[in-house]
From TrEMBL:
The gene is cobA. CDD domains: CobA_ACA. It comes from Mycolicibacterium tokaiense. GO terms for biological process: cobalamin biosynthetic process. This is Cob(I)alamin adenosyltransferase. The lineage of its organism: Bacteria, Bacillati, Actinomycetota, Actinomycetes, Mycobacteriales. Keywords: Transferase.
Amino acid sequence: MPQGVPAVVPRDGLTTRARRNTPVLAVHTGPGKGKSTAAFGMALRAWNSGLSVAVFQFVKSAKWKVGEEAAFRRLGELHEQHGVGAPVEWHKMGSGWSWTRKQGDEADHADAAADGWTEIARRLAAEQHDFYVLDEFTYPLKWGWVDTAEVVDTLTRRPGMQHVVITGRDAPAALVEAADLVTEMAKVKHPMDAGRKGQKGIEW
């Protein structure tokens, strides 16, 4: 796609404007670093364009301090106080989704993941947000906590102009097939290969 021009334009009867204004389902997968980072970069563009953003983190503990979370919460406050950008919501698992406050072991977290997906599906049906980040959502799918077929069906039938980005390793084949944009991150080198631990400003 040199200069953003498609190599092939399908004969689907749609105008250029109609084809451009189509909701995107993106998947960032693969063993390399940067899947979530790329998703949050897209979310930042969405916020700047006035699209409401909702982030749902499926594996991060509620106790972990995530730099992007702090930044997006500030952006949400900026919108509330000055009307800049768009609304932002951030929900994460661990000690529980922010609307259920569940606590417990892995079985409880599996239930929380299922509850989380149910809530996301409800919001998609209601067209509650413009841009969704389902961070590390491939893991609940891989582990069988959430049914992949149901997720694919819900996402492909979602109404309106709702963009969805899903991150995580080992994305199911059915999800990859359904997506409009799939990027596979491949690791070439990583500081941990040399025994270096994650550091502030790089990993969180």
